[in-house]
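ugh ok fine here u go
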Amino acid sequence: MASADMKDIKRRIKSVSSTMQITKAMELVASSKLRKAKERAESATLFFETLYETMREITAENSTFRSIYYNNREVKTVMMIVIAGDRGLAGGYNTNALKLAQRKIDEAAQKSDVVVIPIGKKAVEYFEKRSYRVVAKYECIAENIRMNAAKEIGAKIMASFKNGNVDKVELIYTDYVSPLVQEARHKEIIPLESVSDKKHRDVQTSYEPSAEQLFDLIIPQYIAGVLYGTIADSFASEQAARRIAMENASDNADEMISNLSLLYNRARQSTITQEITEIVSGASAQE
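structure:
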């Protein structure tokens, strides 16, 4: 009986050891990807913030400023762009993003129609299974996203808004705060929020041919910059979450191996003690 227990424990130790090798390898891969993704996300954030600040200045300096991308209108249809991962095994990364997306969609659906653009395989699967109106979908683009790809997605979004098919565009993504903290966030990207900061209105700049035309010229870059930055930010968050999840899995596997090894040694010691007892009993019987 003890021998059977020892064989079962030995098989479990081997199985857990194999799993730990996989989790350690995935942890190393995620760490490697995280370094590159973090650098890309930081550079994208700097570009977006500069562009966004420029647009705020343009709108703030003119109290009569008008643009279809700036002034609010009656919201009949909301477009929700949801960014999630292409793979699982990343802790709560996908769950948190999709949970926030579901809550925002439920809120928007009370007042208007909702269409969805999922980015990432997990987001695509989530919304296709729930019969949402998916107007476009993108899978496996986050790791190697380029600005041209972001511009193509942005052009479709702007065309839908300009044609009146959607009246508001919102975005769900995951913000990379630190290697240990990633937060699902919600952002309204069109129409651009109004600005009332006095520090902007104190600056007077002359725009040629006009502030409105310059604003409409910059808006495609703004939309592409938002998409590129949030996709890069989300991918960095995904890798950080996966690294943490795999590190925890490796630690748990190591603890399981230690406990199983202790059980194995106890079973082995019990078997040895039993064999010694049998030998001594047999020798005593012969005397």
